[in-house]
Amino acid sequence: MRVFFATDIHGSETCWRKFLNSGTHYEADVMILGGDMTGKALVPVVHDGGERWHGTLQEQRRDLAGEDAVAAFEQDVIRRGYYPFRTTPDELAELESDSKRLDDLFHKEMLGTVERWMSMAAEKLAGHKQRVFVCPGNDDQFEVDDILAAASRVELAEGRVVEVGDYQMASTGWSNVTPWNTYREEPEDVLLERIRGVTQRLTNPPERVIFNLHCPPYASGLDDAPGLNEDMTPKHGGHAPEPVGSKAVRTAIEETKPALALHGHIHEARGHARIGSTLCINPGSAYEQGELLGALIELNGKKVKSFVLTSG
Amino acid sequence: MASADMPMERTMFVRKATGLVKGWSVFDAFIYSAFAINLMALGFGYAFTGVAVIPTGGLIAAIVLSGLFIIFEVLVYASMIAVMPRAGGDYVWQSRVFGGGIGFVLAATGWWFILWHWVPIYANILILEVIQPILNVLGYNGTDTFHAAWWNPIHGTGIFIASILTAVIATVVVSAGMSWYARFQKWCFYGAMVGLVFMIAVFLLHSKADFITAFNNQTDIYGTHAANAYQGTVGAADKADLSFQGYGSAPLRATFLLIPFMLFFNLWPNWGATLYGEVRGASDFRKNIYAMGGALLFTTVVVLITFAAMAHAMGFNFYGVLSSEYWAAFTSPTYWFPYPGMLAAMFFSNGLIQVVLLLLLSLWFFGWADSLFLSSTRMIFAAAFDRILPEWATKVDDRTHVPIGALALMLLPSIPISYLYAYNSKFYSYTLDATVVIAITYFGTTLAAIVLPWRKPEIYRASPISKYELAGIPLVTLAGVVFGGFLAFCIYKWFTDDVYGVNHSSSLRYMLILYGVAIGIYIASRVVRRREGIDLARINSEIPVE
């Protein structure tokens, strides 16, 4: 069985489209998308009157004339993983002072995009045999689960043990506590209980178990992120990574000893590591560049036969 | 355009999400780059002494001119970091643009194999700028074991021990981690700057007559016992018909010929490029330019000030004389390595002050030498993650978190190479390729930068640099053409001109062997992985978007 795993695409439509094509491209039997599929930012496209608009992407202001230019700019925003929205200078000023309205707009754009992506999946994967699993991550709000659960061509993996060929896959997108107070994060002891709540439903022997846990295990090298000062600036010019993974995830891996553990969360920490007999992989993420980083893993029913990290 | 009383329009709303941090400090990255183009260790340690080989060249002009060309290197690397901010640097970029084979061969030679050879080169500088000067001022200036003259910087047990020390220092730093190293490097920078200011002040506060007196006195103390050493040295240089250009002189052709020497010193503002992870956008592109370019500008200006101060105290010409004497261009009554720290220390008769000055200046070495293996381990990790190298290369010790696999691949080969350097009279000349091989790796990245907008248009368009154009030509391409042309000139000169010492047939064969080993590893890994069912060609194949 060949598995393709990618993660942390953060609203990048380019990456989502590539993910949908990855099964065919890599001849994979199963496609798994780890957590954090929703974007981090809204980009206003401001109406200046008449046919004139403007927007700013990557700190570059663009003045746009006409619908075609606006649509092209919006596509650039979407490709990078952000959500464009059309507005006026007055509305923009109101939005700045109204956090509730801003939250609502985020929800609308994020959930609307996920719904659109599920339709896209249904269309693109029609007639294909691959199974597709998606497990939201700590940056994804809970309503995403409902949309995934209702999707026709994508299976929600969160909190479940699913049969994948001869294997069982246990999944959760929850993480340990982060400095950003995200949707799905909790203290290590609570997280460990959450993971155990899923893994206790496993019936396969360890060599036929896959973990799909968004957060990487602590001090595995797959969790090295730039250390932060108290004011949230990276320490030492971003040159000094520190382990920020989950001790609960590490404990769960040491307890269950699955053949394979798939992780994401820390974009910079692309790599693989062994914890005991478990092969742990974090393919990393380069969603802003429109690159789909992934892992292609060959399982033969007894062990991980081979694997490789990809940049597609 | 926003006026002063108009509130700045919000251009983006960011929600709570992992990884959203404020901008990193340019100063922190600047320190890393400033140490990489180390004026004391690399400049005065070797590059500037090139004036001995091409005395008709303008040394100051060569430093400035080469710096101007290196600005384009800064642009190329800042661009590539912005386009693909991934640990692994050159390896990742070249693999993505040209394919894994070219990426691996050029990165493995330039970031891995050749850095084994830099261990004795670093050790050479450790002896010349730290061990020998301190032993001399402490009075251990004889030829006895562990005295200054015993520490031969090229041959023998002294350089071997210094090489082992260097490798151990680099290993300890990789083991301790970047966070510790970054703190250590920052304190080294402050201390090293205090030492540098102290040294410059010493030169400025003394006259040429003071210098001649100090030189003659101290030369006697340090074992050469030559009466009137200054006059003797200058006289011998005159007799050999040696003359050097003045501080501001810049005869174009000869100055250009000096430039390949200067690259030993200032080719490396991008040394941290393999370390970069996720960056945020155009502001980070600019910050990378500020950090690397700022380090280049700062270092160049400090070098100019240092030489001006030295010229004030001893005459600019005398630096060329000492360099020529060191490289045995003429027979002199003295034998001095022209290390400005030692030349400044000579003004003092108090040993404690001398040692303090030399120890402060030694921080230029200790803040820099530790990074010897850091970037290499990143490249090794990146290649192992792509399955070109075996999985054990990424092995991290569970208890200490030390990357023992990558460290072994750096440390273990460096020991026999240091041994050969120390005890085999021919091997020293092979290490002269050290700069060339890395320059060729940079040339590969530069070619990747030039063609990037056409080879990987999607990635390029999605990057914050895609808006930077000149006459419709992408800035990254223009910068790449200028820097690529500059590198091509230097590589051509290295290969064709005897003065640089790297166009020996044995040296070329040695370089080819290094490339051959890299090609062999890549081919072997493709065969082995294919048997395992992995097609390495797939790693970088583009997944269709539509």
What is the gist of this entry?
The complex is a heterodimer of chains A (312) and B (546). Chain A has 312 residues and is of the alpha/beta class.
Question: What does this molecule look like?
Answer:
The complex is a heterodimer of chains A (312) and B (546). Chain A is of the alpha/beta class and 312 residues long. Chain A is 29% helix and 29% strand. Chain A has a six-stranded mixed beta sheet. In chain A, strands 9-10-11-14-16-15 form a six-stranded mixed beta sheet, with helices on one face. Chain A starts with a strand and ends with a strand. Chain B is mainly α and 546 residues long. Chain B contains 21 helices and three strands. In chain B, strands 2-3 form a two-stranded antiparallel ribbon. In chain B, helix 4 packs across helix 18. The longest helix of chain B has 38 residues. The two termini of chain B are 39 Å apart. The N terminus of chain B is likely disordered. Chains A and B meet through helix 1, strand 3, helix 3, helix 4 and strand 13 of A and strand 1, helix 1, helix 7, helix 11 and helix 19 of B.
Descriptive keywords:
heterodimer, A: 312 residues, alpha/beta, six-stranded mixed sheet, 7 helices, 29% helix, globular, B: 546 residues, 21 helices, 3 strands, disordered N terminus
Measured as a percent range, the helix fraction of chain B is 55-70%
Distance between the termini of chain B: 39 Å
The proportion of strand residues of chain A reads 25-35%
By DSSP (H or I, 4+ residues per run), the number of helices of chain B equals: 21
Q: Main sheet of chain B? A: 2 strands, antiparallel
Envelope shape of chain A: globular
Helix content of chain A: 25-40%
Give the total of beta strands of chain A.
18
Structural class of chain A: alpha/beta
